[in-house]
Amino acid sequence: MTTIIAAFADGWGRVLRAPAILLGALAISLLIAFPAARAVESGIAAGLGSSLDAEQMAAGANGAWWERFGQEATGLDATFTPSVIGFGAVLDNLSRFVDDGAPPAPILGLVAASLLAWLFLVGGILDRYARRRPLRAAAFFGACGTFFFRFLRLAVVAAAGYYLLFGVVHGWLFDQFYPWAVRDLTVERTAFVLRAALYTVFLGLAAFWNLVMDYAKIRAVVEDRRSMLGAFLAAWRFVVSHPAKTGGLYLLNAAAFLAVLLIYAITAPGAAGSGWVVLAGFAVGQVYLLARIAVKLAFYASQTALFQRSLAHAGYTAAPELLWPESPAAEEIVNAAPKAGPSAG
Question: What is the pTM assigned to this prediction?
């Protein structure tokens, strides 16, 4: 337990000592979402015009207009539903995840762009967190570019696993086994407990696969692995041989994520309001987005710290400064080597 807490604290320390990565990830997330937001804004403005509905929507929600807009909207405009307001968006996303619901078709492009952006950045992010010292922009983006093509190969393995989970296992558990198991039940509580147990099993399998993929990226970066199949197998062995540490740290990070969700659920704005209420709601939303990105980065940083502690890939120092592409593991060897003292003569 001490190792888990130490890795968790170390991971958050690495995130907070690299604010440029945190703010940069936030900026990229906003840039990806900005064109879609502008398109939806234009659609709403065209739908409202200068009508009385516009005045009512400015003061709060107008359910009748919203329903008409939803019936006529197409493309990205169709995503402007009550579920996007405040904490409703979080609940909608969680529901889609556990019930194997695909994202709305109009935002698939945004999802793909976000995944590609993270796939590009994660190599430089892990390299920075593993070294625990500032990197020049050339070194950071050099790591991003090189590992991006390696991680594209790893993404094929990841996609196969997620397809098996969501396309096969989820369907078998909830579309075949669950209806068969409850067909003769008369107690609703028993059916609820069974479904909750199946959710637990499915989420456990998804978490395991996510862990393996995370540590595959970490091993690829820290040890400068070129074979992604080798990184995947090494990550699998590491997770299986350290289930208490890797699983415990994952649960601790998940608890931090749930804490962020709870705080947002309490503070998230509703649809009604105007003026400073709208500004306050916007500010709360941006703080939530920043906190969510920080938690995502803390997952990577703390898992990197745990891996380094477990396999003695730790103790990186800032000097001597080495330029990428020497791996973090190679840098450790050089930095740990005894320094030559002055000659006796």
Answer: 0.77
CB count, 10 Å around CB of 154? 20
Residue 17 is assigned to a structural domain of this protein: yes
Distance from C-alpha of 15 to C-alpha of 25, rounded to nearest angstrom: 12
Give domain status of residue 209, yes or no.
Answer: yes
Query: pLDDT grade, residue 207 (50/70/90)?
Result: very high
Domain-embedded: residue 80: no
Only one residue has tokens 């015009």, namely 49
What's the rounded Cα separation, in Å, for the pair 79 and 92? 12
Domain total in the chain: 1
Domain that holds residue 20: 2-52+100-254+289-334
**pLDDT tens for each residue of 244-257:** 999 999 999 999 99
Q: What is the CA angle 176-182-183, rounded to 5?
A: 85
Residues 262-306 pLDDT 10s: 888 888 766 555 556 667 777 887 888 899 999 999 999 999 999
Query: Considering the domain boundaries, does residue 154 fall inside one?
Result: yes
CB burial of residue 166 (10 Å; 0-12, 13-18, 19+): middle
